[in-house]
Specification:
heterodimer, A: mainly alpha, two-stranded antiparallel sheet, 32 helices, B: alpha/beta, 8-stranded mixed β-sheet, 14 helices, 11 strands, 32% helix, globular
Chain lengths: 642, 414
């Protein structure tokens, strides 16, 4: 893809738009370089935030908060040049992150291979159960299933851990922010089915690859992804009985069959397996049930309501049905056969459709679905909906109509170029307004990741940091419903949430978050010999980005005044025994028997068990000196915002 | 926001002055609460995994039941491991023996052939539908218990009670998601600030700045709640009336719900769930897998009732499960995903000693899709009757949007 070409035309148009808006002609002089990051003086004049606030604003919104040194780095490069860098992640070196990610054993393996092993183990287990039920000795080895289940739980924990590690450590911060945004926008749920977990690594990669690309490409990648096909049931959707379908051989345009035909081979299976009458009856029932399957509207509906047009985007129930019909046959291969996307012509409703006023001729097969995606991706409703969601994430809970409209214009002019839309938003006067500054309440993901970054923590290759996020209420890939986690603060701020956040801060100060050690705080060597006031200044600067209320500063200043030299050390010693004997794999794998069933039926593999052990939030720690200040600062109201 | 401001200026702020929680509760509830019956609690228990209603409340008067379940039927009353007869036609599973005295005291009422009208056989979808209270509607974002609290009359004061709605679960369950304040915790001990010495006060001071924005307001409310719970002293709890709870997670969580009720912290809605009902293989009959689950279930409910004693007059326990199981046993001596099942209501206000719900029969032509117990009572009929009569809920159309049934369909449970 040629970025220069894609961006040049819209930049010119935006430039004109900006000129009209700002009444400034100077801003329409074409930039010297096509990727120039220099905003016009008129644009700069509209920024209410101070230079320092602008630096923090971009680090808090286009990144998951500053790491030690980041503020100085952005200041040196310049806010706008830094934004430009982040908008082009492919140009940023991220080797260290890639090397770290190579340490995840199961993520390096072929996920379909794992899914296939899992499916086979399950099949074996059913055989064992049947043999046992029939009073025969079990032949197959049940340990295969146990291994497969363990690997499934481990796949999930590796995916989650890797997602958090990237957010903490990647230089491509905006790409990670956008990945987080899109994975929430295109929500899928790990507990949807037994195999969903094995599709998530691919899903995560797909979304990251397209996070700043063309929206149509992202939408198409999601629509073809096994994770989404399975999650929103399109994988099961097929032509209603009586509708014409396409032939099994995939001969396009040839209407050769009728949907819902008799499931083949039931009699043959009964004879071959020598089933008794009861089993035969069961099989017949299952075949009868299968025959009744038909159109599933789930994906067709959410595609418009949540992914593109928005609930008021101007579509009808008939459009939902037509979209679902167009997408019939888009399904997933069984894991044993590779598990990827496949189009099944014999499931595809080959009749004519009318979708949002567009006629889709009969018998075109897979192209129907592509056309539906084209139509919704080009809709002004989608431009508006996506722009609004992005502005809500990046600017404020209630972004102004003017800003959303400008972003939507960019979307329409650039044929849905996400990079261009994001740039419109994050270089806008609204983004740099005093009202927007520090106005967003952090999500659980943002609380944990920004804490790790502020403390200069190494990315955590264990599941613990991800578990802390789950503990704060928003487990990764753990949202059951397709609407994703809410983007606004009032939705997740409640008494339980704030209690957990305070307890999280205390546990971080007690060295319970891997990678974040109070003995290795930024500048600890000089700090531990400094006055308490200097220490407080440092903690306020590092964790609260220099802005603490008088009350907060007073509390950080109060408390004992021990010889500062020994304070941090004492904390380290008191905190260490709590964790010293635990290995991390044990914490997540060794499950108390009693919660197993409940966690399983709630569909979150491993999470119930892991949370029951609560590896991050332990008993009340004795905190002193710097660690106490860190604990207080992380639990303060100031830290809950970005 | 108003609600939070109330907390600061209202009765709960007095906790800090060392007043007793019961006094507090009188203060909180003694205000003008015209539309809400005082001090009632609804305890909802979700049996996740689809409990087999036919083996829980056994239709021993139906020959078809025995024909369809050659190895897993619960034997007729009087036989070894046989059902405990209730009314000559239905009987309790023998593991539910601890509940029989409650039936005799007319505290317990089973409801049969009840459940969701949705035809979904997916645990995932069906639990969702039952918790949101909107069968076959996937877009509902909140749970019906939460909506009920949100729309309940003009009760500003009771909305300020921090423990008005509590889920004894690690995460907020679907049924309690929504606009009303709720607390989810896997144990009472967990609801505390994990800090030592004066650190707790220091942290609290961070939030008591006079600022009433979202973060500060919620933080102050949380510290009030923690204090309220601490003054109720849940760590020092001894069940009354020699009640003995099972050591199981379910038993311990119900014990903590009883603690909260007795602590007078204003608990109006409590929720807990219990798994293990998805009995596809080797389900057992009067003994075995399902029998073991029911043993824990019944022992817990009996202990809960005994522990609360007279306070059961203000408490109603409502059990539910996402769907029932196939009427016929499968090839693995188990049952597959079915349709209608059996619920229980238990409490002083319950008109117990009777099996409620129209019995659809088990003859082949009487089955749903030729395989499951047919549905004759929509779960929303039961839930709405309980919500209105026990908790004084209003505006059922807001709690169960799309539900067209009315009081004329109520079973007369309460």
């Amino acid at each position: 893809m040629n970025n220069t070409e894609l961006l040049s035309a819209p930049r010119w148009l935006r430039c004109l738009a900006a000129a009209l808006l700002l009444g400034a002609v100077a801003s329409c002089v074409p930039p010297a370089r096509s990727q120039s990051a220099v905003p016009s003086s008129a644009e700069l004049a509209l920024r209410e935030q101070t230079a320092d606030q602008q630096v923090l604003q971009v680090l808090n919104r286009l990144a998951f908060g500053p790491r030690p040194g980041d503020v100085q780095r952005v200041r040196t490069i310049g806010v706008d040049a830094w934004i430009e860098q982040q908008l082009n992640p492919e140009r940023l070196n991220d080797d260290a992150m890639d090397q770290m990610l190579a340490r995840y054993p199961l993520l390096q393996q072929d996920q379909t291979g794992l899914a296939s092993q899992f499916a086979e183990a399950q099949r074996q287990s059913r055989l064992v159960k049947r043999d046992t039920a029939a009073g025969q000795a079990g032949v197959a080895d049940i340990s295969a299933l146990k291994d497969a289940r363990k690997s499934r739980a481990q796949v999930v924990s590796e995916i989650e851990s890797a997602r958090v590690a990237r957010a903490v450590g990647s230089n491509r911060q905006l790409q990670e922010v956008m990945t987080d945004f899109w994975e929430n926008h295109f929500n899928v749920f790990v507990g949807k089915s037994q195999t969903e977990a094995f599709y998530l690594a691919d899903y995560d990669r797909t979304i990251r690859d397209h996070a700043l690309g063309k929206f149509r490409d992202l939408l198409g990648a999601v629509a073809h992804s096994p994770a989404m096909l399975e999650y929103l049931d399109n994988a099961q959707s097929r032509a209603n009985p009586g509708e014409p379908t396409l032939g099994a051989a995939g001969r396009r345009g040839m209407v050769v069959a009728r949907g819902g035909g008799r499931a083949p081979g039931v009699e043959a299976i009964i004879i071959r397996r020598n089933l008794n009458p009861q089993q035969a009856q069961q099989l017949n029932q299952r075949a009868a049930a299968a025959k009744k399957t038909g159109l599933n509207e789930n994906y067709g509906r959410e595609l418009m309501e949540l992914h593109t047009l928005g609930v008021d985007g101007g579509y009808t129930q008939q459009d939902v049905i037509e979209a679902a019909r167009a997408l019939t046959g888009w399904t997933v291969r069984p894991p044993a056969q590779g598990g990827g996307y496949i189009f099944r012509p014999e499931w595809h409703d080959a009749g004519e459709k009318t979708f949002l006023g567009h006629k889709l001729a009969a018998g075109r097969g897979e192209q129907d679905g592509e056309d539906v995606l084209d139509i919704v991706a080009r809709s002004p409703s989608t431009a508006h909906f996506i722009s609004q969601e992005l502005a809500r994430r990046l600017v404020s809970d209630s972004p102004s109509t003017a800003l959303v409209d400008r972003a939507a214009q960019t979307y329409m002019k650039t044929d849905g170029d996400i990079r261009a839309v994001v740039k419109t938003i994050v270089t806008s006067p609204e983004f740099f307004s005093t009202r927007a500054y520090h106005s967003k309440v952090k999500s659980p993901f943002e609380v944990v990741v920004s804490a790790a970054r502020a403390l200069g923590a190494e990315p955590d290759s264990t599941p613990r940091t991800a578990l802390a996020i789950a503990f704060l209420g928003e487990p990764i890939f753990g949202h059951r419903d397709p609407n994703g986690w809410p983007e606004t603060g009032d939705a997740w701020m409640n008494t339980g949430a704030i209690l957990n956040r305070i307890n999280f801060g205390l546990s971080v100060a007690a060295n319970r978050l891997p990678g974040a050690n109070m003995r290795q705080l930024p500048g600890i060597d000089t700090l531990q010999h400094a006055s308490r006031e200097t220490q407080v200044d440092a903690v306020v600067a590092t964790i609260l980005q220099g802005a603490a209320s008088p009350q907060t500063r007073k509390i950080l200043m109060s408390g004992e005044h021990p010889l500062a030299a020994s304070a941090a050390q004492q904390v380290a010693q008191t905190a260490a025994p709590a964790d010293g004997n635990e290995t991390i794999t044990d914490a997540t794998m060794a499950a108390p028997q009693r919660v197993k069933g409940a966690a399983k039926q709630q569909g979150l593999p491993g999470l119930g068990r892991a949370l029951a052990r609560n590896p991050v939030i332990g008993p009340a720690p004795q905190l002193k000196g710097l660690a106490q200040m860190v604990g207080f600062a992380l639990g303060s109201p100031e830290f809950q915002r970005r | 926001m108003d609600r939070r401001v109330f907390v600061k200026s209202g009765a709960l702020a007095l906790v800090t002055m060392g007043l007793s929680p019961s006094f507090l509760r009188r203060m909180a509830y003694g205000m003008d609460l015209k539309n809400v019956p005082k001090g009632k609690t609804l305890v909802c228990l979700f049996q996740r995994g689809a409990a087999d209603g036919l083996n829980v409340v056994v239709p021993h008067g139906e020959q078809a039941y025995y024909n369809m379940r050659p190895t897993i039927a619960v034997a007729r009353p009087g036989q070894p491991s046989g059902a405990i007869d209730l009314d000559g036609f239905f009987g309790l599973h023998p593991s539910l023996a601890p509940l029989k005295p409650l039936w005799d005291q007319k505290l317990l009422a089973p409801i049969h052939a009840v459940g969701s009208p949705s035809t979904s056989r997916s645990h995932f979808d069906a639990q969702d539908f039952m918790e949101t209270g909107t069968p076959d509607m996937k877009g509902t974002s909140d749970g019906w218990l939460n909506r009920m609290l949100a729309v309940q009359g003009t009760c500003q004061e009771c909305q300020a009670v921090p423990f008005r709605a509590v889920a004894m679960t690690a995460q907020t369950p679907r049924i309690l998601e929504g606009p009303s304040e709720t607390v989810a915790m896997s144990s009472l001990g967990e609801f505390s600030v994990r800090a030592t010495g004066s650190d707790v006060e220091q942290l609290e001071a961070l939030y008591r700045t006079g600022s009433a924005d979202l973060v500060h307001g919620t933080g102050q409310e949380m510290f009030d709640a923690v204090k309220l719970l601490r003054s109720a002293n849940p760590q020092q709890y001894a069940p009354r009336n020699n009640a003995v709870y099972p050591k199981s997670q379910f038993g311990q969580r119900l014990m903590q719900i009883a603690q909260l009720i007795k602590s007078n912290v204003g608990l109006e809605v409590a929720f807990a769930d219990v798994g293990g009902w998805d009995t596809h293989v080797n389900q057992g009959n009067g003994t075995g897998q399902l029998a073991n689950r029911l043993d824990d279930f019944a022992t817990t409910l009996a202990a809960f009732t005994q522990d609360l004693g007279d306070q059961m007059n203000d408490v109603l326990v409502l059990t539910m499960s996402e769907f029932g199981r196939t009427a016929r046993e499968n090839g693995n001596r188990g049952t597959d995903h079915g349709h209608a099942t059996a619920f229980f209501v238990l409490g002083g206000g319950v008109k117990g000693g009777k099996v409620y719900g129209k019995w659809p029969g088990l003859a082949p032509e009487q089955l749903n899709e030729g395989r499951d117990l047919r549905l004759t009572t929509d779960f929303r009929t039961v839930f709405s009757e309980v919500a209105v009569k026990h908790l004084g809920a209003t505006r059922v159309e807001k709690i169960f949007p799309g539900y067209t049934g009315g009081p004329q369909e109520w079973l007369g449970l309460v």
